[in-house]
Amino acid sequence: MKFSFEQNSVSIPVELTQAGKFYRLTIGESTFEAEIIHAKDGKLDFLIDGKRLTAYVSSDNARRWVTVDGQTLVLTKSSGARRGSQAGHHNAGELTAPMPGQVRAVNVSEGDAVAKGQTLLVLEAMKMEIRIHAPQDGTVKKLFVKQSQTVEREQVLIEIGVS
Known about the structure:
Elements (H helix, E strand, L loop, with lengths): L1 E6 L2 E10 L2 E6 L2 E11 L2 E6 L2 E10 L2 E6 L2 E7 L16 E3 L4 E6 L6 E2 L4 E7 L2 E6 L4 E6 L6 E2 L4 E7 L1
Antiparallel strand pairs: 1-2, 1-8, 2-3, 3-4, 4-5, 5-6, 6-7, 7-8, 9-16, 10-12, 10-15, 11-14, 12-13, 14-16
């Protein structure tokens, strides 16, 4: 996920990517490794450089307010953010979460051949099941989530390579 925030009239880029059980957080030129300990209802407990921190997060589609140690940053989604209720495609073949939720089922594995329309995984959000379907025939190149994992809106879930 890519964001930015304003500091002294300068836009600072922020990128968050999953790297195994850790997340890589790049803020401007600095990169940190963070481990999420617990996340629920807008409260996020995590370790960064061995220090335990708590962040409070709220959002309205394009912006997220993140408060850590009494300081609040307003993060704005970078261009290319998707709107709507369908799973998005950031890059060709990347399927993203249409809303925050929990992965209830993963129906494929890396390397599996898939057919257009096939249900790849199921999310639960607001007591609804959301089925993520293959947009085209192809092969599962990469799974970025596992069953029971909580995901954020527009988080990359799976990458499909075209056959």
